[in-house]
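Co-fold these.
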Amino acid sequence: MTVLILTCEQDVTADMVVAELDGSGVPVVRLDPADLPGPVALSGEYVHGAFRGHLSAGGRMVSMSGLRSVWVRRPGVPATRAAEPSDWLSEETSQALYGMLRSTDARWMNHPDAARRARHKPWQLRLAQRSRLPVPATLITTFPQAARDFADRFPDLVVKPVSGAHPQEPPRAVPTSRVAPDADFSAVAYGPTLLQRRVAKRADIRMTCVGDRIHAARKAVGPDADPDEVDVRFATSDTTWLPVEPPPRVAAGVRTYLREAGLAYGAFDFAEDGDGTWWFLECNQSGQFGFVQIESGQPVARSVADWLAAPGPDPVPSNGGRAWLLEGH
Amino acid sequence: MTVLILTCEQDVTADMVVAELDGSGVPVVRLDPADLPGPVALSGEYVHGAFRGHLSAGGRMVSMSGLRSVWVRRPGVPATRAAEPSDWLSEETSQALYGMLRSTDARWMNHPDAARRARHKPWQLRLAQRSRLPVPATLITTFPQAARDFADRFPDLVVKPVSGAHPQEPPRAVPTSRVAPDADFSAVAYGPTLLQRRVAKRADIRMTCVGDRIHAARKAVGPDADPDEVDVRFATSDTTWLPVEPPPRVAAGVRTYLREAGLAYGAFDFAEDGDGTWWFLECNQSGQFGFVQIESGQPVARSVADWLAAPGPDPVPSNGGRAWLLEGH
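Predicted complex below.
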């Protein structure tokens, strides 16, 4: 049984996992959907009630029924390296590739549907609440008056994008910023705005979760940190990520979250306050883990490889099958 | 409890359903996400482990916890009618709106995840097979030799797009066409191609399914029909859609399909051959029903209104919760 990795050519994180899989003798096919059609080819036949599909990449042919798992790492847009690329060809190719892969029995890290749903910040916040994780008071609104009322109740606020990275080429991360005490909220009417009570943090927490395995790491806020620098991605720091034992309630909450979200992989960000409470900020279903592994020494790539190589049924219904407990009933 | 309809302003099909709901005294809020922010506004607050959300449209305010169901009819792209539209604003607005709606207990027709998955033709064909519906022999390939071999085994073929409508503005439907006996398949290498055994049909079948209700209609092929005109959407015809009783096995298969796909609504196209067999061609999760209702007299709009207004839990886990039986296990 083969592990299929969908990612671009330059992907050091994928390299780390491939090295682990190679070391264990697990067959791997790695390809970039941007190379289909061309260096990558596919074929699927539906005859007499049965389906037989094949993928070809790098001179190797693999049967779709022989796929153990699919790791959706950083795949390119299908057909973008074709001889004559077009939106139409990308759509046709995407439907062919993912439509066939969706029909296989392979396990997904992460399933495209679960991944897409998991990107919705408002949904994340609600699922974290239902998973009994502490969530800082948050408002998402286009009503200026609602923003003003919220700022009266929670005077120390940060503002963040609702959706994450700005969709330019290359995507640009928008930093979380503090809201000035005399902020004018009238512009809220022109775009949904996410306001959140600022957590006066003494550490950032990154929990990298792979199936049932949790790798929690902690990075203390430096003693001379600027309290206006609330976004760890943009802060300079002398401190490093160190392994930490998560509180049992947080570990249980994170497992509930992943199960209900149908995710096999999730990178959680928490802020630890002065009382030691871990406040949920977000769960990135495609979050990087290379930097944590290098600094903390935690074997995340090993965990990913083990999950991808494991036989048997999916421990988490990887397309989010459980989430109907939360939605749509 | 309120029914929320997401659609554009000019939508006669939605008008038909709204008339039914109004006649039953069911509260309805109809809005176009393109009008958010602006005429449509939203707000959601996450405080002390609870969520409270509101939508405002046409001067009416509705609580998200008061939504019974959401009908995703023909919604515009969020924020496209904003004062300063941009991809970034559309993404922020989409995440805010759908992220909140996904967190509610409302039932969906259809859930966005189930709808997205259901558009994949290769996945449709496999699910139809597993639902024991007859599927004409089909090949989807980028291997010219595979296409040649298939044409040897099944000499009478049609070719169709894998993905449906061509993504130009406005989208253009690509007709299904017969493959000439001496076809050169070398171009298959430049784009995935769907080849299917042609069904010599004596009628087209449209089954419009709403929850458990099936409205099956049949349109006979005219006696002087051109056998090269295989695509009913482009054929001229004197015959009309008439109600027909589906064979019990087909009705059972269609119900299995919808359940496993997590769809509350689906419009199935079949081709009836000379033996009376109904061959599955496709299931369009957003297929029109106005023309069938008008010609056949079947009360599809009434069924849609009844489903949207029905209290209680979702008869189908409407985000596709059951589909992990087929995928990813």
